[in-house]
Amino acid sequence: MRCVSFQIIIDKKKVVDWEPYQHQRGIDLIFSVFRQDGGKVPISSFPWSNKQDVMDVCEKSGEPVCEILNQFMTGTTPLSCNESWDINLDRYVYQQEAQQHWNDTVKRTSTGRPIDAYISPVAASAAVKPGGWVAISSLPFRSC
User: Fold this and answer.
1) FRET pair for 111, CA 20 to 30 Å: which of 41, 49, 88, 138?
2) Residue 32: per-residue pLDDT
3) What's the count of helices (H) and strands (E) in the chain, helices before strands?
4) d(Cα 94, Cα 72) in Å, to the nearest integer?
5) How far apart are CA 5 and CA 18, in angstroms?
6) What are the CA-CA distances from residue 57 to residues 49, 67, 71 (Å)?
């Protein structure tokens, strides 16, 4: 990250520290979205899956389920349609607020525009370390 920041400075661009918007709220919302179906994770994208659920397959195979999967896929019941709508509306509102937070960076730049991008590592390591994963972005911003 230092190398990238250094090159941006060499190119006479301004580096502005990013201040995340209500990170814990975003984590809570995305986990709520994941749990809407009561923790059923279909693996129907695989032709051999026969529309089975990840947790069911792990149970049948005897394969232990990694802790992070257990954290957001067990111990929940499916939500009603209205409850699901409420969660998705909450996520939408959060995304709009986060977009406004991004747009408000215009106050911290010298261009009269919001920041162009934020640069960060996707993860702290090449693979998820057991117990080390934190969150998935629930924002409308994606890397390309």
Assistant:
1) 138
2) 83
3) 5, 0
4) 20
5) 12
6) 9, 16, 17
